[in-house]
Amino acid sequence: MVYQLQNLNKDEQQIALLAPAYVTVLISGADSNIEDSEIGRAIKLVHIKTFSENHELQELYKFIEASFESDVKTLIGNLPKDTEERNQIISQELERLNGIFDKIDSVFALHYYNSLKDFTHHIASAFGGVLGFQSVSPLEREFVTLPMLKEPELK
Fold first, then answer.
1. Alpha helix locations (H) across the chain?
2. What pLDDT score was predicted for residue 133?
3. What percentage of residues in the chain have a pLDDT greater than 90?
4. Domain assignment of residue 123, yes or no
5. Which of 54, 55, 76, 113 minimizes the number of CB atoms within 10 Å of its CB?
6. Domain annotation covers residue 32
7. Which range is most confident: 14-23, 125-134, 141-150?
8. What is the Cα–Cα distance from 25 to 27, expressed in whole angstroms?
9. Does residue 147 sit within a domain?
10. 66-109 pLDDT, tens per residue?
11. Which domain holds residue 86?
């Protein structure tokens, strides 16, 4: 387990570790059609983050990467097929990160928050727009800023 998350209970750890999978389903499913190619791109992005982020986040993404593909597929299988209902549930789950951010090191929390927002923007630009040409679709725009999350304050 990533040491920054060790003091969280199992449920909180799971939410923190599933956040990129939730973001993937939220953004790629904004148009109600989640493609295998979209999941593949998100898998590559998680892998890139295992060496492109700061050291602490690299360790977190290495842990996330181990089950990321199956986590995304499990979420897709377990969440409602209705886009609006699915997005509401995902938003509620991601909103739980706000309380988790208050319980972990504030610098780590801020880095993870920023990393998730970066992740969201990469997914939206890769999957959105006309023929996927690096633009955010109107359906994704509502969630691309992760409005359910509050920026963690440094303590």
1. 10-28, 36-52, 55-65, 68-78, 83-95, 97-103, 106-127, 138-141
2. 47
3. 70
4. yes
5. 55
6. yes
7. 14-23
8. 6
9. no
10. 999 999 999 999 999 999 999 999 999 999 999 999 999 999 99
11. 3-141
